[in-house]
Structure formats: structure tokens, C-alpha cells
Amino acid sequence: SAAQKDGFDWFMRKEIHEQPRALADTLLGRYATDGSLTLDEIRIATSELRSIQRIVIIGCGTAHYAGMVAKYAIEHWTRIPCEVELASEFRYRDPIVGPQTLVVAISQSGETADTLMAIRHAREQGSKVLAICNTNGSTIPRESDAVIYTHAGPEIGVASTKGFLTQVLACYLLGLYLAQVKSTKFGEEIVAIMHELETMPELVQEVLDNQQQVLELAADFADEPSVLFLGRHVGFPVALEGALKLKELAYIHAEGFAAGELKHGPIAVIDQDLPVFVVVPPRGRDMLHDKVVSNIQEIRARGARTIVLAEQDDEAVEQYADVLIRLPKVQTLLQPLVATVPLQIFACELATQKGHDVDQPRNLAKSVTVE
Ligand code: G6P
């Protein structure tokens, strides 16, 4: 009923709008009185956490993309080698895991069969398994050694939205906590990143308050047969997630690519008939931003329409963007929390304009409980 949807027409729209609160709830109570980061729910002894040599993150669908974002952050902050893999691929390739591997299983529902089978396999090999999950008491956390719960509240829409954002946030918390345990980052650095994380609910709210342009853009896409999404670094999984949302909801063929791969294939399909979304990294000391800006030029030179997501006052992108979607300023590693939201809104709006049921898209299930 409308009441359950808080006055929204679809659960998905309601859940997109709940993201600031979901992030705030997932951040709640993470500071100990001495200013350090606490993750009480990790019931793995500190000595054991210190002995971790490798992290393997597994998940399916959107949760797998959250894991891709996590890899960049966790490896950068902790210096622990970190891999991410589709849960459905993990067990069948006889992976090398053991007592010094921490397996992190990400699952909104906690019931996805592929992820469950993968953690069973990991534990049989002697690995510790940490679940990142949104559903209290579900099977995956019950069969794990520890669990970090995301506090998104029930997610009804089949396509994950607030589930994704809170998974990404929980992975950041895990990375910072491991960095603290291993002392690869100083206390003040962790506090500074935590402070930036605490502004995220507000920044995501800003994105939600400025969605008019994205809503209008959707109307132009009703007849597009195909859309490309490009991103680099953590913007790459954001691009994959943008493409997945479009497939799931609008039933439009969409692909996400790493922008650096443009010349290795995708550029061959670019012409005036293929719109391209580009997630531009914040300007920083590395050259990522400039490299993605030259990708946009290359796309434009082939006549494609460019829809560019870039931070406030990034003037370098203006002349190459047919549509420019502004994002709040954040550090690169945290950008997925703000950059994903316009893509969710875009897919939801386009799908509803086409008359699709965005809460229960055709052929999809909220939780895939068979392998
Ligand atoms: C299904 C859902 C997706 C979800 C994936 C993983 O395919 O339609 O939205 O990302 O399962 O679900 P999980 O509950 O394990 O995060």
C-alpha cells in the first residue's frame, strides 16, 4: 500500500530516498570513547586479524560490485592484498584459501545460494568468514565467523539501492578497522576519513535534492536500444552498477567498462547512436581525472552523446559534456557513495516512464536461493 511506501509510488523510489538515513544508521556507534573506530561485531581476535595475509571478497550482482569498490579502499588503507570474485565462480575453481585468508561475503539478503556455497567451501578450507549483510539472522551470517550488519532496513525493491550504498560503507568501515588493527594508518588519518564518511548522509541528500535534471534526462532515453557506462578506479564498479540497474529495470542493453580500456575495444562501437555515461574521478594528485577527461574527448570526437558525472566546479569537463551531472566534492575512494545515486534515479525513472514495474522487474528475484 501507499502507506508502506511512505507516500512514494514504488518501494524502489522510497528506498533510494532512504539512503541518507541508511548510511547514518550504518555509521552509528562506530566511535569508542578514545576516538578509535569500533566494530564490536567482529568477534575475530585481534591477533588473528593481524595475521591475515590476504582478503577475498565474494558476492553476486550488486553485492559483487560493492566488493569491487571495497578492494580499492581496503587494499589502499590496509596494504593487505585483496581480491574480489563472483561467488558463483569461487568454489568451482578450487581456490587457494586457508587460515590466513579472510573471506568477506557480501549479501543483502543473506540467502543467496552461490554466496552461501562459497562460504561453506571457504570454511572447509580453514578460512575465517566475515559476512556483510542486511538481514538479521539470515543463513549467511549464521554460517559465518562474524558479521557486520548494514542498517539499511528492509529492502523490498528487487534491484538493490540502499543495500549497495550501505554495503560499500560497511566495507570502508572494515578497511579502516583493519588498518587500525594493523597500524597501517595513523589514528588521525582514520579519524579524518571517518569525519568525511560522517558527512556522506548529508551529501547523498544533496544529490537527492538536485535530481530534476536526471529525471528530465530519462525522458530522452525511452527509445535508446543501448547505453554505455565508463568509469575508472572506483568509478569502474559504479559504471558497472549503472549499467546493471538499466538492464534490470529498463530492459535496455547496457555495458559498463573501465575507461582505460576504451581504446582496447569499446571505442569500436562508439558512434552518434550510442549515448555514453562517464563517471569522472575527482581532481587530485594522480592523473586519473585528466585521463578520463581525454576519454570523454575521444568519445565526443566520434559523435556520441556524453552524460558526464563530475564533481562541483570541475570546469575541465564542461566543454565535452552534453549533459553534466554535478556531484558533491569527496575524496576519490568515497565517490561511489555519491556517484551511484544519480544512476539509480535515472534507471528507476526511465523504467517507470516506460511503464515497467521497478519493484519486481521481469525474470528477476530479490534473492536467488538456487545455484
Ligand atoms: C539478486 C538481486 C540483486 C542482488 C543479488 C545479490 O540477483 O536481484 O539485486 O544484488 O541477487 O543478492 P544478495 O542478497 O546476496 O546481496
TrEMBL record:
Homodimer. The keyword Glycosyltransferase does not apply. It is an enzyme of class 2 (transferase). It is found in: Cytoplasm. GO terms for molecular function: glutamine-fructose-6-phosphate transaminase (isomerizing) activity. Catalyzes the first step in hexosamine metabolism, converting fructose-6P into glucosamine-6P using glutamine as a nitrogen source. Residues 45-184, 217-361 form the SIS domain. Keywords: Aminotransferase, Cytoplasm, Glutamine amidotransferase, Repeat, Transferase. It comes from the Bacteria. The keyword Kinase does not apply. The active site is at K366 (for fru-6p isomerization activity). Its EC number is 2.6.1.16. It catalyses: D-fructose 6-phosphate + L-glutamine = D-glucosamine 6-phosphate + L-glutamate. The chain holds residues 244 to 614 of 614 of the full protein. This is Glutamine--fructose-6-phosphate aminotransferase [isomerizing].
